[in-house]
Amino acid sequence: MNLREMNWMQVEAYLEADDRIVIPLGSTEQHAYLSLFTDAILAERVALEACGPLGIPVCPVVPFGMTPRFLAYPGTISLRTETYLALLEDLVTSLHGQGFRRFVFVNGHGGNCPIWSSLSLWFEKNIDCRGVFHDWWRAPETWRIVTATDPVAMHASWMENFPWTRIAGIAQPDEAKPAIMLEQLHDVTPEMVRIRLGDGNFGGRYARADAEMHAIWAIAVEETRRVIAAV
What we know:
single chain; metal ion binding; Rossmann fold; two-stranded antiparallel ribbon; 7 helices; 231 residues; 10% strand; zinc; mainly alpha; 5 strands
């Protein structure tokens, strides 16, 4: 269930039988020739498709995350750690006050991962609640099929190139870009990151066949569904 398509009375009725809710976490950042909203699109879509048969509500995706190293690419928006933590704490506090007790964060952006160690403290204080942080793209079964499809799977490469993350009228390069060593992006300015990355793809092919991408997506949805159902 998509929370944006529900009214408050429907949510209240849902809470009479269940206290789970899913919160997709994304980012607005450069993804080479793909949408700046790629991480948000994928996190929200996998959450909605996973929750469909379960009847569990899905919050609108949080479209901003922590991505300071891409700030030299126009359109990238990054939150400070303290800002992001405060936002997520306010979000779960609001929902907790209404009766939600089990929270699944479906994360689509690697830069958001460090927030969980801080956000988990909120759950330690609210012992009647449970929180799960799920990186959908690198969950075990999903990552297994990704690397079996193509071992060079990196940021802004083919592994994020789904029909729903492409920009209409924008062609993808038909080539494989040499992979960058991630150490080259550590402790450098956003301007230097842009110089070293160029278009933003970390390495690998820009696109693969849609049939391969749909096969990966089907496993990601099923794996995410199992995580949510088990909370």
